[in-house]
Specification:
Elements (H helix, E strand, L loop, with lengths): L2 H29 L1 H21 L12 H16 L5 H25 L1
């Protein structure tokens, strides 16, 4: 992977985690449970189109897990850096990002 592709991939992952952190809670606060569904559609759909449709993320063999890991690790870093949370508390995000990536990959493999 070249430096340019690495920076583009990092940027795509950062944008996804940043938008989740910035907007998801606000949508849930303002619109309740429907806001969670709106956030899932708008945030995930828009960044998926940017990363995979436009091609911001450079994909290798395990491309079906990239956005789950970007969200998990990005929110983990935000919890540690911004919220000054304990690493152990942020570890829950990593575990669920891994589970989500595995589950998403399994479901996609069942369709092909």
């Amino acid at each position: 992977m070249t430096l340019q592709l690495g920076l583009a991939t990092f940027s795509g992952g950062f944008i996804f985690a940043f938008l989740i952190r910035l907007l998801w809670g606000e949508l849930v606060t303002n619109f309740g449970p429907a806001g969670g569904w709106l956030a899932a559609g708008f945030i995930v759909g828009t960044t998926w189109s940017l990363n995979h449709g436009v091609g911001l993320i450079y994909q290798t063999g395990a491309a079906w897990i990239d956005m789950a890991y970007a969200a998990g690790f990005g929110l983990f870093a935000a919890n540690i850096i911004v919220d000054k949370a304990d690493v152990g508390k942020g570890f829950v995000n990593i575990v669920f990002a891994i589970i989500g990536g595995i589950l998403g990959g399994f479901l996609l493999s069942c369709m092909g």
